[in-house]
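ERR on first pass: missing label on line 2. Operator R.T. fixed the label and resubmitted. Corrected input:
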Amino acid sequence: MLLVLEQCLNGLQFGLLLFLLAAGLTLVFGIMDLVNLAHGSLYMMGAYFAATFCAFTGSFVLGAILALIATLLLGIVLELVALRPLYGRDHLDHVLGTFGLILFFNELVRLVWGPAGLTLPLPASLGTHVALLPGLAYPTYRLMIIAVSLVVAAFLYWLVMRTRLGMLIRAGASNREMVGALGIDIRLLYTLLFGLGAALAALAGLMQAPILTVQIGMGENILILAFVVIVIGGIGSIRGALFAAVFVGLVDTLGRAFLPDLLHLMLSATAAATIGRAVSSMLIYVLMAAVLALRPEGLFPVGSR
Amino acid sequence: MSAAIDARNLVVGVLLAALALLPVYAHAAGDAFALSLFTRIVILALAATSLNLILGYGGMVSFGHAAYLGIGGYAVGILADSGIVSGFVQWPVALAVSAVAALAIGALSLRSRGVYFIMITLAFAQMLYYVASGLDQYGGDDGLTINSRSRFAGLIDLSDRTQFYYLCLALLLAAIALCWRLMNARFGMVIRGARANDRRMRAIGFPTFRYRLVCFVIAGTLCGLAGALLANHTDFVSPAVMFWTRSGDLIVMVVFGGMGSLFGPLMGAIAYLVLEEALSRVTEYWQIILGPMLLLIVLFARGGIDGLLGSLGRG
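pass 2 clean. output:
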């Protein structure tokens, strides 16, 4: 029972990380109508920046903050140089252009940091465990990820729903010409929004970095999971992204942890291990197919546009 | 059609003649590498041609087309691994499995439009990639070596590089002819009409979903054939052939060549793979040049090679 609880926490933590990535993606798509495959590259750059700055400053928190700022600036430069000409173009153009950016960033990282991955060691103060229940010690760092993600989710909600900036963002989503006509610099708004998305991706990347290694292509697999989250949640909906991300995180983690054992009740050990592994890696895609079959617009569709 | 010889026809004619004569050159110059490179190019041109059916003519941006390359390849590889080496069994199975996969993926993803369609095809292809990686008894991540190429009872010997090249070229030309037939038939008109205005096509009574699904299945099946060829060419199949960047490469080839043009995918495949080869000789980090180049092409040369030739012809 404790094991189930622990895996649920792991799933929640993974889901919230996915949410950080999916939120940036869905904001950029929902409001700027831009399909950004290079979002995963920003996740990767965040992790590499963090590993570099942490080693340089010797402080995890300081390095993380510097990495966030660096990725924010990178996102803004990227938007100004490469993506601005793509607005209003066909989605296929977005896909191809940002696919080119992925190749560029992967190769850039290989050139600068080399083909071998980096590690981002945790400070000793975060490497501890907290006893949540008698017999259940959970890593402090993973709890911290959950807490930070929840704070960011609340901040996003506040930003989008309660501030003037958020009001402009939502207005820009429903009618960008009108917002422009009312004297708002919509281009500046887009640039800021893209920078925010980049920083969110970097935050996800640098928080994940101590758990996994920092390596080339790390952003691509998780990017596709973020797509699944967005498809399930409904494109453009932050609320949908949050629910779908936690759902996907839980299903994926629990499936990987328990499906082989469940199958073992019916099958031989080797068959259960093989089939369990195959089925559990397919689980979230099956989930996506089911959602699509029932609700092609996702679970939380943004009002029809 | 008024000018019998315009720039486009001339280039296509020269290109086909060059492709037909390539083995002659390879034998004369002893350049086995050129033959191998162009066999690969022709096979990927077949895959790009199949993608062009849905992407170029149908406007369906499938980002998971490389999945069928893997399905076709694994069908050949797994059958060969279990001792069935007859091409008369392997290839129909490869085509059939690809068709079934395309039917399932198409039935689900064609319900959606635009970005959803892109993301969903991508996700399903990635799912198949993970399934292939999980096939432990067939090599898993490391892939599966194929010890014997498909055998066709003495009709043709695939181990002979020249014969294999001509087989690939013939299949590519057959596929292009099929595309031409299909797209100028009523079927193709419906597909193109649905691309331009789906709602209107439905209003005048065409069940466009079914037409698009059939088109999607044909494209997947043709790409499965390319996968079977590719596995025979490399004597190897691994999950890497169905990784999502492979699907991206195929899209790039189609757009490079010119979407919805008959010989565009062939020209795009040649341009892209030769460029890749040339850049990788200049620097180890060739993708750092290729990436921004893609962005520039998207921004400034949208019609691809075919579009450039067309504008030359109009003068």
